[in-house]
Amino acid sequence: MRRCRLIYKSIAYPEILEPEAIGELTTLASERNKESGITGILLLSGDSFLQALEGPVRFVNQLFIKIANDKRHHDIELVTYEDINATCFHDWSMRLVDLAQIQDEKRELLLQKYPHSGDAISYPNDKMLLFSLLIDAKNVLLAS
Ligand SMILES: Cc1cc2nc3c(=O)[nH]c(=O)nc-3n(C[C@H](O)[C@H](O)[C@H](O)COP(=O)(O)O)c2cc1C
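That is the input. Now the predicted structure with flavin mononucleotide docked in place:
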């Protein structure tokens, strides 16, 4: 079965950033993704989302069409789309990492490595660095 990894970024409308709303979105996303063999991570930095979706090409494509039409965010921008042999988020059907919640020395490390405006981490334009941020966010969550 052909598998792919799709990464996009978008800007959230304020309503979806309410803790209950974002919690519900992530829980539902995780349940749905499990059913279709999709794994991934959803980063939040201020009002900006960055999401990686991995899984069977057909399901990832169908899901991205839904997400791109979801009225809870805007300025959706596809960043990368590639075939994969192995997944990076194989045990996560979907997990949210709010970069603003990362504290202390882990925050310092992220600020040293990635572009930021004030204390808020910005998503790098460089695709390798962007991917590295997704993996660092995963590792920070695993370590916490
Ligand atoms: C930022 C963002 C990320 C989302 N991620 C997922 C996801 O990983 N999986 C998922 O099933 N839905 C996700 N959704 C929700 C979908 O857009 C859609 O509402 C959901 O799949 C239900 O669609 P349906 O009821 O038409 O089947 C996300 C929505 C937003 C705004």
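The chain has one domain: 3-143.
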